[in-house]
Write a structure and sequence with these properties.
Blueprint: E1 10-13, E2 16-19, H1 28-39, H2 42-59, E3 61-64, H3 67-74, E4 83-87, H4 92-106, E5 112-116, H5 117-122, H6 127-141, E6 145-155, H7 158-163, H8 165-182, E7 186-190, H9 202-221, E8 231-235, H10 246-263, E9 272-275, H11 298-312, E10 317-319, H12 332-335, E11 340-343, H13 345-353, H14 357-370, H15 381-388, H16 397-401, H17 405-425, H18 432-438
Parallel strand pairs: 3-6, 4-5, 4-11, 5-6, 6-7, 7-8, 8-9, 9-10, 10-11
Antiparallel strand pairs: 1-2
Amino acid sequence: MIERLMNGAVTVDDGNVVIENRSAIASPAMDALVYAAVFGDQDSRDNARWLIWEIGQKVGVIPSSIHDLYLARGRGETGGFTVPAINVRGMTYHTARSIFRTAIKLNAGAFILEIARSEIAYTDQRPPEYVAMIMAAALREGFRGPVFIQGDHFQVSAKKFAADPAGEVDAVKQLAREAAAAGFYNIDIDTSTLVDLSKPTLDEQQRTNYEQAADIAVYVRQLQPEGIDISLGGEIGEVGTLNSTVEELHSYMDGFNRTLARLAPDAEGLSKISVQSGTTHGGVVLPDGSIADVKIDFETLRRLSVEAREHYGLSGAVQHGASTLPDTAFHNFPETETAEIHLATNFQSMLYDHLPSSLRDEIYAWLRENAKDERKPADSDEQFFYKTRKKAIGPFKKRFWDLPADVKRTLAAAYDEKFAFLFTQLAVGDTKDIVARFVEPVTQHRPQPHEDLAVVPAAPDDADLSY
């Protein structure tokens, strides 16, 4: 049975999980369980993920919605911090362990772990696997409390929408269904790709954006478990385009609320709004591989956050594409009362910087062949690899997991330092009590999927899964 991986610390009696030894949960036994949840056969994966979920319900590691905390911020009952939403792409379990270690050290509760629609595809991490790894990481480190797992950029492709509007929107809805069932209780609906700046008025420019976002929001509300209001975000301007304005914010929000009231009068609305203030996803890489300086407009963030709170009761504005900003920029986010920032690419860069050169060379050789269609004529090698190496995370997932122990320890130390810096700059230390004040975790037990008769893969003998 799959619970044997926990060395007798956990037993299953007719689908009910009994924890015999709580200290063993934060031990290498959890490493073996999550390894099975990712690399086992279908039966083993299903049961390992179920067991991780049930252990979490028993000890208080509960996937939750940040919705009520954000609405409290909209009412002016809390503030002064910016929630980091961290896109964990590669070595998810190990990276998340570092995040939870940092949270425990700093007494932080207001932070999000997320993955975007595009990342789910190229990292080969469907929502059930992602939730299992995040929860296992929290359990392994001894974290307790709400865990905020988010679907980032559940985005409608403008190209696919033009060819088949209903089909493309339905694809986003079906991803939301899978994600909500897995434990994603925070979802960013991104239909900003449908903004048409050629239209003569702001309402016409934003109409398809807000109408499709409201339609998806109504669908998501039908998916949420009893007692949970999924935190939903909208987006008024695609990241990397022109900076957002107050007028665009009002046009989008008024249109969204009007459409939502027509489709589902009693439905909860948004809790935050994503805007554009000068960043791009991943930053702009120069020919030598360095990242171009970014001139972010903090006054835009401050002004839009104020408007979002005062006029619509939202938590404030959300900034995407922030991880490649200089270290000196991050203290500005809580000072301008930015509600949330999204951080991704820099952690991927740190992963690649710590790989053994032989593995990195192997990955780059793979990219030369498998991502060659994405190379622009003027791209240097540095630019090409920087822009495409995310595509290797899925195909090389197991190789990353099986890195030598000394490599993983060095990477862990670098991650610990970086996350501690960011949590401090964003002022989310000592937010655990604030989260507890406004967020009530909802325990949800699930039926065991099927009897586990499958052979569970052991971790490689030379692989140290702990660090």
